[in-house]
Amino acid sequence: MVDLSAWPAGMRLIVRAERPHPGAQLRGTDVDGNRITCFATSTAGGQLADLELRHRRRARCEDRTRAAKDTGPANLPLHGFDQNRIWLELVLLAQDLVAWAQMLGLSGHEARRWEPKKLRLRLFSAAARLAATGRRRFLRFNPAWPWAEPLTGAIDRLRLLTAPT
């Protein structure tokens, strides 16, 4: 039993036991094949499902912060404070663009959750040929490349989006 007497007034500890998904690696903290998860909240009232959903959304936000470290903030390349501040703004802008492009362009639940390193390997480093014909330009990928279909599908879906007004 957890002693909550030293915690601030109104704090609750919500504990949940759930079966790990098939193929999940069991941990030493798993009890009788169940994974124990918990979180603390000071929110008064509310349904347990709503509190857990809010907590999981927060975890996704922290995942984005962790993934951002792979795109530039881990190493500040410039010498001055103002220069590094501009660098960080550009990195955050790039991260936002990648997150929106993943959400709106990529199909499939797995592709939408790719980390920046995997995106770099599979999509951003794609070899293609720029072909021009009839005043139009086409980007042609090698059809044998395993990530050609997801990338061309994402480009087509992003082109169909209407511009904001």
From TrEMBL:
InterPro entries: Tnp_DDE_dom. Residues 6-161 form the Transposase DDE domain. It comes from the Bacteria. This is Transposase DDE domain-containing protein. It comes from Nocardiopsis kunsanensis.
